């Protein structure tokens, strides 16, 4: 059973916060990463030479009397070059100016950012697509696709990682199954084909075994085997499976209970690419510039090797501009709900009831009610009444919570859960956003209600001399509507580092997802066997949904490149919920592309997308130019003689061949702005597509030609989109271009245009 601290949504949802944990003194050695760019193919015999070269680089700046520091913590040599070592701030600065060095940055700590979710995604795809999806699944997809999961490790005994029905491991696999006292080579099998772990220094111990549960949950969501009768102590019972049960898994344990070190994450990327994975799923967060971000660096080199990198958008929503993973070479995923809720009913003494949201195994019943108290009415003193409304620390009198059910209005304050669970009988949180996010409270009676219900509960308290209530144990609410809804915690665009790439790319299920976990031997459910499956919420859970969908597409279209798969999932995403209305956010407003990207993924539709946008390596090189990196840096990163175009500016980022369009600044006083895209046919030969446009009033959008045709020998065609903002409202304008072949294929391109 999860700790009661997990009740707090922004703890339960694994907020993606970067923590610097080292001394600020510029003379105290600290772990740094030295990134040296792309690795020209290093043969085995040359590995020692590169390590020696890196040691010589260190010795050039570390004083001879401190020669013990001339050693490498990690050595990156496969997909990219570099190392991590102990340096002072001055030494790091000196190294950053070296001709061979791209960047030097501190070794910081990253934090972690199903029975129904896959069925829900299929149900939303439409009858024809569901039929196509079923037919494909019945044709036994390839088992050669390998998903690498960079996370907290794996619990190999979970039934989700059973290898029944799997043949021999693909001969191209170069990975290993690293042993430790609690993890044997026998823990790997034909499904779980590899496991590595990483430590901060050579004196540390490590293991690929997962003790957090995050990595196990993500791995089983992406590629877990079919498991009948999975549930969390009876809740959400059904068949658990990942998005691509036929895919293999390779685990890279780069994290521990405290988080994930940058150096470990980079080493995991380097190994995963070399080992031969096809897709990397990484549900971790970082808020640093591209050349200091291990996911941006690792993702860039993975893409150069044909590996699709899928990553979580972050859990810093619902504020705008909270998304940091804006590099075009990573697939960034926001989170949404599915059509299942977990209701914990609040029953008042006046017999009115309200359906709250929670995962609570409360032993309270209808037959007995308890005194009900609003936080501000049990404040420690008059000076903290306003804080007591939200039950912030030290604002509530502990003695006045005894035996009561306490009501609090959500705020950013930290809530004293230990106080409530030790003395109170139950807890009701009023939070409009988090009524969609059920948190696990174990045996403690708990419910989250929206603002309207919360107001009625507080009015009852104020109008009654002796208000009472009870909180009933959670029951599952199936076929919940509307769904999907954008999760309140899901990070929003526009991007922090560039607004000319639309992020997030898509959304996927990320709220109360049931998947494999680490069994909790200290469960407080007396007499119950520890659960093998449990719920987690966050964009961390949405990420492996997309990784699993991508792997399944890869298994059926093995010749498709990573960018073709990414395009297929983006351009076939849906913007409608299960009642046929446009997707909404948790506040009840229509969601925009900065919240949902192109929309909710629709894997069945992505199997036959019609045509795709292939974003090339040259597109990514041009992105680096347009972003402002020098030719010298780009040549180090790419090991090519690529030269930047003479005209390179940030606004030209909008022109790279991406499956969506974002323009950070459109001057209403200029005539128009034209964007060009090139598409590749993966559907019927001789297909003709016609464009239709949905644009806000005042924004003139034109596509030319209005029809594109793929003749027998023509597989690639281009089109242009012009935007004129003279009459448009200021700020971001969102819209959609849909190409239709007159039959079954609809290719949708979302655009976001900021008018100034």
UniProtKB/TrEMBL annotation:
Q: Which organism is it from?
A: Pistacia atlantica
The protein, known as: Uncharacterized protein
List the top taxonomic levels of the source: Eukaryota, Viridiplantae, Streptophyta, Embryophyta, Tracheophyta
């Amino acid at each position: 059973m999860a700790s009661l601290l997990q009740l707090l949504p922004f703890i339960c949802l694994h907020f993606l916060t970067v923590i610097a944990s080292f001394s600020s003194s510029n003379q105290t050695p600290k772990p740094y990463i030295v990134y040296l760019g792309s690795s020209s193919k290093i043969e085995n015999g040359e590995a020692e030479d590169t390590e020696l070269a890196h040691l010589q680089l260190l010795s050039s700046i570390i004083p001879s009397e401190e020669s013990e520091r001339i050693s490498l913590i990690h050595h990156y040599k496969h997909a990219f070059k570099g190392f991590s070592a102990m340096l002072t701030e001055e030494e790091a600065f000196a190294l950053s100016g070296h001709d061979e060095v791209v960047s030097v940055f501190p070794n910081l700590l990253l934090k972690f950012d199903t029975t129904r979710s896959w069925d829900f995604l299929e149900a939303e795809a439409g009858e024809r697509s569901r039929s196509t999806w079923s037919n494909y699944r019945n044709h036994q997809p390839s088992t050669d696709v390998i998903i690498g999961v960079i996370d907290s490790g794996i619990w190999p005994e979970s039934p989700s990682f059973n290898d029944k029905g799997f043949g021999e491991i693909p001969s191209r696999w170069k990975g290993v199954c690293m042993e430790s006292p609690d993890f044997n080579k026998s823990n790997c099998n034909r499904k779980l084909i590899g496991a590595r772990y990483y430590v901060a220094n050579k004196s540390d111990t490590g293991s690929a075994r997962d003790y957090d549960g995050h990595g196990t949950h993500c791995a089983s969501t992406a590629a877990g085997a079919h498991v009948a009768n999975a549930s969390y102590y009876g809740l959400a019972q059904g068949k658990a499976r990942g998005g691509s049960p036929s895919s293999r898994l390779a685990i890279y344990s780069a994290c521990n209970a405290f988080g994930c070190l940058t150096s470990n994450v980079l080493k995991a990327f380097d190994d995963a690419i070399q080992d031969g994975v096809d897709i990397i799923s990484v549900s971790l967060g970082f808020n640093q510039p591209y050349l200091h971000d291990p996911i941006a660096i690792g993702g860039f080199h993975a893409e150069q090797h044909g590996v699709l990198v899928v990553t979580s958008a972050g859990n810093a929503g619902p504020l705008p501009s909270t998304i940091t993973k804006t590099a075009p070479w990573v697939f960034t995923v926001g989170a949404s709900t599915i059509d299942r809720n977990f209701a914990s009913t609040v029953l008042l003494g006046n017999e009115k009831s309200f359906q709250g949201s929670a995962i609570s195994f409360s032993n309270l019943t209808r037959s007995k009610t308890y005194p009900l108290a609003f936080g501000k009415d049990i404040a420690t003193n008059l000076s903290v009444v306003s804080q007591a409304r939200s039950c912030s620390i030290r604002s509530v009198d502990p003695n006045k919570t005894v035996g009561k059910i306490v009501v609090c209005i959500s705020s950013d304050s930290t809530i004293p859960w230990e106080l409530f669970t030790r003395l109170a009988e139950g807890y009701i949180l009023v939070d409009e956003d988090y009524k969609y996010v059920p948190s696990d409270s174990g045996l403690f009676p708990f419910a989250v209600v929206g603002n309207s219900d919360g107001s009625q509960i507080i009015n009852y308290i104020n109008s009654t001399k002796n208000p009472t209530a009870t909180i009933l144990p959670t029951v599952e609410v199936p076929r919940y509507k509307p769904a999907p809804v954008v999760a309140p915690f899901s990070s929003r665009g526009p991007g922090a580092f560039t607004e000319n790439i639309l992020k997030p790319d898509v959304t996927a299920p990320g709220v109360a997802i049931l998947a494999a976990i680490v069994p909790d031997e200290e469960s407080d459910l007396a007499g119950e066997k520890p659960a093998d499956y449990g719920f987690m919420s966050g964009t961390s859970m949405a990420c492996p949904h997309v990784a699993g969908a991508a792997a399944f597409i890869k298994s059926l279209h093995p010749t498709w490149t990573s960018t073709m798969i990414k395009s297929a999932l983006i351009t076939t995403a849906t913007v409608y919920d299960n009642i046929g209305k446009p997707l909404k956010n948790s506040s009840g407003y229509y969601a925009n592309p900065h919240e949902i990207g192109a929309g909710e993924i629709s894997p069945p539709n992505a199997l036959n997308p019609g045509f795709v946008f292939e974003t090339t390596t040259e597109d990514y090189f041009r992105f680096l130019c347009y972003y402002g990196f020098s030719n010298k840096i780009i040549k180090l990163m790419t090991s090519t003689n690529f030269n930047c175009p003479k005209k390179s500016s940030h606004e030209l980022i909008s022109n790279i061949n991406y499956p969506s369009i974002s323009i950070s600044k459109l001057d209403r006083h200029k005539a128009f702005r034209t964007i060009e895209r090139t598409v590749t046919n993966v559907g019927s030969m001789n297909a003709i597509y016609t464009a239709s446009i949905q644009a806000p009033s005042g924004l003139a959008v034109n596509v030319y030609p209005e029809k594109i045709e793929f003749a027998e020998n023509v597989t690639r065609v281009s089109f242009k989109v012009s935007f004129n903002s003279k009459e448009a409202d200021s700020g971001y304008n969102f819209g959609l271009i849909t190409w239709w072949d007159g039959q079954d294929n609809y290719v949708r391109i979302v655009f976001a245009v900021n008018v100034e």
